[in-house]
Amino acid sequence: MQDIRVQREPFDAGAEITAFLATVPRSGGVATFIGQVRDFRESGETVHAMTLEHYPGMADRALKALAVDAAQRWPLDGALIIHRYGELHPGEAIVLVATAAAHRGDAFAACEFLMDWLKTKAPFWKKEATSAGTSWVSASAGDDARAERWKD
Amino acid sequence: MSLTVLYFAWVKEKVGCGQETLAPPADVATVAGLMDWLSTLSPGHAAAFADRRLIKSAVDQEHVDHGTALGKAREVAFFPPVTGG
């Protein structure tokens, strides 16, 4: 089962994980990842807010394609991806990824793969509002390198 | 033939709008050719496309390289490398 959501509204990660677990009774291993808004930038400024812009339609489509790809690489019983857009504040969850499999190895690997590819393929852009003004977040070479590891 | 062109993040800010419906000339055959033509439309467009290495593109909501033929594309989008997650 795949549950892919692109939404403006906040979500309760605990409640979402509990609900996801109920859909995968055959899975012995469930891996989860939560990405949240940090309260600082690498350059030191305090982050007050983060606005996530997205490409409606393509964002949903890209996440679904990633979940299909993950299901072809690992024997998954289910995958959940929730990604927010709009204005968020430090401490708020941006993304939740959960993967369920018979054993933990497949669940961990699929969860990491989904996040690594989401970071380089899903059309979302972060703009940070800090004590020094607002600016678009630059893509990271480290993210590209992590995504590259999963190429065939 | 009308084409929907979308811009996101700082590309949108430089162009000055997020979406426009355009009719490129018939000799605009590729994504790169479309960027060349868009650059002539306004100083904002020219600024947005000044350094193509910073721009990613999608045709009908699939990531593509700049050399990709437009073919029967209905929607082309230009944006910086993605930073979600």
Record the SSE blueprint.
The complex is a heterodimer of chains A (152) and B (85).
Chain A: E1 2-7, H1 13-22, E2 29-36, E3 47-54, H2 58-73, E4 76-84, E5 86-88, E6 93-101, H3 104-121, E7 124-130, E8 133-136, H4 141-148
Parallel strand pairs in A: 1-4
Antiparallel strand pairs in A: 2-6, 3-5, 3-7, 4-6, 7-8
Chain B: E1 3-7, H1 9-15, E2 19-22, H2 31-38, H3 43-48, E3 56-59, E4 62-64, E5 75-79
Parallel strand pairs in B: 1-5
Antiparallel strand pairs in B: 1-2, 3-4, 3-5
Concise account of the structure shown:
The complex is a heterodimer of chains A (152) and B (85). In chain A, 34% of the residues lie in helices and 36% in strands.
- Percent strand of chain A equals 35-45%
Order of helices and strands of chain B: EHEHHEEE
End-to-end C-alpha gap of chain A? 25 Å
From the 3D structure, determine the CATH topology of chain B.
Answer: Ubiquitin-like (UB roll)
CATH H-level homologous superfamily name of chain B: Beta-grasp domain
Q: Measured on Cα atoms, how large is the radius of gyration of chain A?
A: 16 Å
> Strands across the major sheet of chain B, in which order?
2-1-5-3-4
Helical content of chain B stands at: 10-25%
Q: What's the overall geometry of chain A?
A: globular
**Percent helix of chain A:** 25-40%
Mean pLDDT of chain B: 97
CATH superfamily of chain A: Molybdopterin biosynthesis MoaE subunit
Known CATH architecture of chain B: Roll
